[in-house]
Amino acid sequence: MRSFRTALSVAAVALAVSLAGCSTAATSSTSTGTTGTSTTTTTTQQAVTAATIEEDTHYDSDDLTWDAATEVAISLADGGSKVTSSSSTGVAVDGNTVTISAAGTYRLSGSLSDGQIVVAAGEEDTVRIILDGVELGNSAGSPFVVQSADEAIVYLQDGSTNTLTDATTYADQGEDAPNAALYSMADLTIAGTGSLTVNGKANDGIVSKDGLVMASGKVTVDAVDDGIRGKDYTVLLDGAYQVTAGGDGVKADNETDEGRGWLLVSGGSLTVNAGDDGVKAFNTLTISGGTVTVAESEEGLEAQHIAISGGDVTVTANDDGVNASGGSSTSTSTDAGAGAAGGGMGGPGGGGMGGGEMAAGDYSVDVSGGTLTINSEGDGLDSNGSATISGGTVVVNGPTNDGNGALDVNGELVVTGGTVAAAGSAGMAVTPGTSSTQSGVQLTFDSSVSAGTPVHIVDSSGAVVATFVTTKTIASLVFSSSAITDGESYTVYTGGSADAKAGVTTGSTDGAEEQGTVTAGQYTQSQGPGGGGGRW
Q1: Are residues 248 and 230 in contact, defined by beta-carbon separation less than 8 angstroms?
Q2: Which of 178, 179, 384, 414 is deepest in the core (most CB within 10 A)?
């Protein structure tokens, strides 16, 4: 274990991740303490490696390797917990409270129906706790508390099933008192290939008041408030995470220290059902790999800066799907979108830059790879500042009301690559701006297009350039891809057939109805509800 180092700034990590896109599998130890292998998959010329993560977080893959002979075995039982190893100077048992006070590796098994594991080690100590079939409950607070250490590692033994359940109300309500079923005042790492179920019945599920790295494991969290919460940073390297939360799903929430409050997903799978925001960071939210599914939320992804360079991201939101806002900047409401007086500046042929009179703040959305699919009742892809799409695929099934837009950018929306299909209402449609180097088309329909209807874009030779199938009733569609040639005329059809039930796909115009023609690069920025360009 090493203390925190700042060789790379958080901004540098975020930039490297946004340029790269990779998945990292952490080195893991077997039950006998032997060493596995660490692998990094690189998909572009500049890679984010495990070493990069290690330089800017507390995480060290070496911490997941240990000598099994040094393990201290602790058998948990109501009224009869025992230390079964000869070397046990760092463990004290007092009734149903087991306190670990020294660096080392501790293997826990058994159950406490109303007890607590407490880590109260030195500020330079690394405490590794192996959960090997553990069930912990507590009737007055948290069953697992790290009060002090340099780093605490919770390792889930291969094949084991472990459960932590806290009280419905906590006796101690102090400022730094535990408020989660797994609570740590120190840097926290969760690793291993076993499973962990966390029931946060009073407040949060898993909390680190420092940094949090989820290296691997199968973790299920059900919490009254936030599901998984790190302070300085939250990192998901690998593993499978299922989070159900009454508040935010997964977040990093340091609002006071510059460069802190960032969140990274670089691998594994994450599924979130949240009563508030799905995945949230105060500063920067980066997704470079893995699968992220926000199945239910108010706002799906939210941070001051959002960068997606890889992975498969699906967001369902009652409000905005992807929202670059908050943070330390101030800005006026992003809902002005393109509705400000005077419309926006155009891409080739006009239209394009949202925001009008509204000020653009220090916020950004940057999509350079992967797939991003949004289903939102509010704005789809929303930035209180700028937005850039240079790669990957972005599909927005946006709002049906004219008070929101599939794309809503206070600054300029710059499209230089990738594929964009943003469908929704027509009242506040934002289109690519003048700095865009990839062309596109803007479609505004005379009558609504029903959910499940294929929309075909056909070039002058009669070839279907793209087919899009919406999941909602829509009035407009903005489409951009390398298949669209600036200045060329395209005919639009609805109906016919498609090779997929939703999203960007291929299809046939047989039996379809012609809707009209559009010229690539000619955008008409809408003027708020009731405004917009010509309709078919």
Answers
A1: no
A2: 384
